[in-house]
Design goal:
This protein is mainly α and 294 residues long. It has 13 helices and three strands. The chain has helices at 2-14, 20-39, 50-62, 67-86, 113-121, 128-143, 147-152, 180-197, 217-231, 241-252, 257-264, 269-272, 274-290, and strands spanning 158-159, 164-169, 172-177. The chain has a three-stranded antiparallel sheet with strand order 1-2-3, with no helix packed on it. α10 (241-252) packs across α13.
């Protein structure tokens, strides 16, 4: 079965062209499933069936795995069976009519407008890093872009004179307006810091690290944690928190879902509707706190 797993992983990497993180997740899930099969003395995947898969999922549940983890495991196992059925290793895919366990969607953590202000106030424009970090945080909250999009931005994808940025995701391009404070922060970074940080004048990355290379996601994650600590915000903040806060605050102030969907780059509006639920929850909370009979 080890050879089968390797062939499957090669298929995912070369034919499906999945990212390294996704490949690692598939490998981890599949190897754990194969290990389970070997423990119950099933050394040939052709001898497995629907009951085998269901029993494994129950095994994961008994071990205390989260519903989301079990659902992801089933998706990985389903992909394996689809691959081996297509290659005639088995006659029938035992997962074809298995339903994934329903995962309850958690509402994303957002910051209040006061907490956003606290966070944005933390970088001090007294050194190169301060100018850069101020520009990055302001730009994130101004545009709602993903951190991966932020660190992928090139200098020719931001128009400070007109006040917008361009984000390219595959064949889709989004043009997102940014507020004047963010424009000024990026302009100051460009004028006073970026030229001193870069070591190669041909560098296209908008945001670079102290070595003059494009900033990484891990690098930005450390920056966020540092300023969250300085601001004394008692919430779990991730690189996505400002994106969620951007969307929720726009909705609270009257923006329509379609416009927010376009700015966030969601292909399906159902992904954007989660912010409507956050807004409803806030209304309920205000009602309970302020209505004299609530």
């Amino acid at each position: 079965m080890e050879a089968l797993v390797e062939n499957f992983m090669n298929f995912l990497e070369k034919d499906k062209r999945l990212s390294l993180n996704t490949l690692q997740s598939y490998r981890r899930d599949i190897e754990q499933y194969i290990q389970y099969l070997q423990e119950i003395k099933l050394n040939n995947i052709s001898n497995t069936n629907k009951t085998t898969v269901i029993t494994y999922l129950l095994h994961l549940k008994k071990k205390g795995r989260a519903t989301s983890t079990i659902s992801r495991n089933l998706a990985s196992i389903r992909s394996l069976y689809q691959y081996i059925a297509k290659n005639k290793i088995i006659d029938h895919d035992p997962t074809s009519d298995l339903e994934s366990p329903k995962v309850e969607k958690k509402l994303p953590q957002i910051l209040s407008t006061h907490e956003v202000e606290l966070l944005l106030e933390q970088p001090k424009c007294i050194d190169l890093k301060g100018y850069r970090d101020k520009a990055m945080l302001e730009l994130l909250y101004a545009s709602g872009i993903r951190v991966s999009e932020l660190i992928s931005l090139n200098i020719d994808e931001i128009n400070l004179e007109m006040g917008f940025i361009k984000c390219n995701k595959g064949s889709r391009e989004r043009v997102i307006p940014i507020y004047p404070i963010a424009v000024n922060a990026v302009q100051e970074y460009m004028n006073k810091a970026r030229g001193l940080l870069i070591q190669n004048k041909d560098e296209k990355a908008l945001f670079v690290n102290v070595n003059g290379k494009r900033l990484t996601r891990q690098g930005f994650w450390k920056i966020i944690k540092q300023y969250k600590s300085q601001a004394k915000i008692n919430k779990d903040i991730t690189p996505h928190t400002l994106r969620h806060s951007f969307a929720a605050h726009l909705l609270e102030n009257g923006a329509d879902l379609r416009s927010i969907q376009e700015m966030l780059g969601h292909s399906d509006i159902s992904s954007t509707q989660i912010y409507a639920q956050i807004a409803k929850n806030k209304i309920k909370e205000v009602y309970k706190k302020t209505h004299p009979r609530a």
